[in-house]
Amino acid sequence: MFQQQLRIPGPTPIPERVAEAGRRPMINHRSAPFTRLLGEIIEGIQWAVESKNKVLIFPASGSGGLEAAIVNLLRPGEKALFCSCGAFGARWIQMARRYGVDVVELKIPLGQPVIPEDVQFVLEQDPEISTVYVTHNETSTGIMNPVADIARVVKQKQKLLVLDSVSAAGCVPMPTAPEADVVLSASQKGWMSPPGAAIAVVSAEAMQKAASSRLPRWYLDFSLMAQAQAKGETVTTPPISVLYAMHEALAMMREEGRDEIFLRHAAVAAMTQAGIEALGFALLAQPGYRSRTVTAVLHEGGKEALGQLRSQLMQKGVVVAGGQGELADKLFRIGHLGQVTPADIVSVLCSLEDVLAGGDGMGSGKGVAAARSALAAFTSSPSPTPTQHSRPSRKST
Amino acid sequence: MFQQQLRIPGPTPIPERVAEAGRRPMINHRSAPFTRLLGEIIEGIQWAVESKNKVLIFPASGSGGLEAAIVNLLRPGEKALFCSCGAFGARWIQMARRYGVDVVELKIPLGQPVIPEDVQFVLEQDPEISTVYVTHNETSTGIMNPVADIARVVKQKQKLLVLDSVSAAGCVPMPTAPEADVVLSASQKGWMSPPGAAIAVVSAEAMQKAASSRLPRWYLDFSLMAQAQAKGETVTTPPISVLYAMHEALAMMREEGRDEIFLRHAAVAAMTQAGIEALGFALLAQPGYRSRTVTAVLHEGGKEALGQLRSQLMQKGVVVAGGQGELADKLFRIGHLGQVTPADIVSVLCSLEDVLAGGDGMGSGKGVAAARSALAAFTSSPSPTPTQHSRPSRKST
Question: Considering the entire predicted model, what is its pTM?
Answer without folding.
Answer: 0.95
